[in-house]
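Need the bound structure for tryptophan, inputs here:
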Amino acid sequence: MTKKIMLSGIQPTGELHIGNYLGAIKNWVSLFEKYYGYFIVVDYHAITIEYDVSVMQKRIIEAAIEYLACGLTPDKCSIFIQSHVPAHTELAWIFNSVIPVAELERMTQYKDKSKNNETNINAGLLTYPALMASDILLYQPHAVPVGEDQAQHLELTRMIARKFNARYGEYFIEPDTIHSNVPRILGLDGQRKMSKSLQNHISLRMTDKETETAILRKGVTDLNRKLKTDKGNPDICNMYKWHTIFSSEDEQKECAQSCRNASIGCVDCKRILVKNINNELSPIREKINELENNKDYVYDVLSDGAKKANEIASSILNGAKEKMGLLSHRE
Ligand code: ADP
Ligand code: TRP
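Answer from helper R.:
Posting the output first, comments after.
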């Protein structure tokens, strides 16, 4: 039986965190039974904000290592770097001539990022969704598994496919969006989405000790509970929310009850959480260390991934150009 296709991508803008893991990567792994995957390290997207040129190459390889360590093995998917497949930027140009500027200006991510980068609101920041649509539509995927914050970009991708098809004839297929059971996890601050740029995250690469320190020091709990003897409310505690993701049902019940009757303090409750997060991340962290010492393997995976991606992407791109009445290049 041939499998369906799924595709997704993450920007190499910093160490992957448990938000990326729960909202995206863990879900990708669980979908392997039904889907073959294309997973992209989207470096061209990452250059739309200020970045440190001297660490970019390192970040790109680290992202690929993190993908592999989470279980994206090359027998189940292709992993590649966006800039190694030129068809992405070519099709993005074509999509730029299909998509109304007003639709791009509506995007929440564009509004947020331009607010945070007032001195560098470049055109790439605005046309970002055209490149993302191209990343996706070049591989005709049935599904795109992403966190909740990407739903708007996926809607726009489907709109771009429809607009292209309406103008040039049926060609691109509209993919479905798939969310995980944790489509949005809040950061340590308990206020905002966990994000690399907000420094409110637990990264996959932290040591057990660093995880413990971050959670004990920065993990915001029920703010009304000032003293250990005060009764707490787990329903408004972000650390308890994390328990519902990482801890066993018994531990969840125990923590909730003991918090309500003030028989456990926040620190002890957090220690249980730390243990469970470290347990879940431990095999991933081990694999990251192993792959850091075997980069040749990682380069080979990326090279195979790019080869396969280039074949598919250039054929889909050529088909699109034909539909558009462009003259094909003769060798
Ligand atoms: P960041 O916001 O940290 O820069 P990205 O934008 O690179 O993360 O997101 C990569 C993937 O991880 C996307 O599918 C995104 O929806 C998902 N994701 C990011 N942050 C979270 C979060 N806090 N909760 C759930 N999913 C998330
Ligand atoms: N825009 C996505 C993010 O910020 C990253 C991304 C780029 C992506 N191209 C993609 C996600 C294609 C899914 C499919 O997280």
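Comments: The CA atoms of residues 12 and 57 lie 9 Å apart. DSSP finds 13 helices and five strands in the chain.
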